Amino acid sequence: MTATDSTRSRRLGSRIAKTLFAAGLLSVCLVTFGVFWLGAREPREHSVRTERVLAVPVDSVWARLLDFEAYPAWRQELAGVKVEESAGDTLVYQEYVASKPGMRFRVEQQQAPSLLVVRNISEKFPLDLLWTWELEALPEGCRVRLSESGAVNSVTLRFYYRYVNSNSYMIEKRLSQLAESFTPS
Fold first, then answer.
1. How far is CA 20 from CA 26, 33, 67, 139, 185, in A?
2. Which range marks the domain in which residue 175 is found?
3. Of 35, 54, 126, 144, which has the fewest CB atoms closer than 10 Å, so is most exposed?
4. Number of other CB atoms surrounding residue 54 within 10 Å
């Protein structure tokens, strides 16, 4: 190989590297634009609801929902929960995911044993969401309804909830976790 061939080879390699870099950068820009564009097209406000009948007394389900610090026993994604405040009717708790703080919640409404409403009050999460648990006693156990409503302020989160991990999936998962927590292991 001559010096001229070596120079040509380096130039060709350099051009290929620059072309690949430009193509990669363009791809990242297009994906980012696509995420923002699709997320911006999704509605800011949303509401989803699901329900399930459990062969468990309503008082047992109510007790499980109010035992916030025991949530990690049936919600596998949680590493811990700490009740931060409990003054009068106001209760605030912090969820921890893999030892890092996750969302903070405030109990907005509580009517034993049929209604529990909690709101996300985390400043670092661009979500203004309300989760409503409704329990109805039945002869065979109880009906549990879970609804999520509110606003997703971030367009990237709107994209995520629409195309990656839907809101209905999340509340279905939560209800399944609750039901499974009553199944003997």
1. 10, 20, 54, 66, 53
2. 46-180
3. 126
4. 21
Are 29 and 64 within one domain?
no
Helix (H) or strand (E) holding 130: strand 127-138
* Tens digit of each residue's pLDDT (9 = 90 or more) over 92-149: 999 998 767 788 999 999 999 999 999 999 887 777 889 999 999 999 999 999 998 9
**Same-domain check for residues 104 and 34:** no
Same domain for 9 and 97? no
**Tokens at residue 133, please?**
């648990």
- Overall domain count for the chain: 2
- Tell which residue, 86, 102, 45, has the closest CA to residue 94: 102
3-state secondary structure at position 11: helix
Cα separation, 148 vs 170, whole angstroms: 9
In the chain, the percentage of residues whose pLDDT exceeds 90 is 45
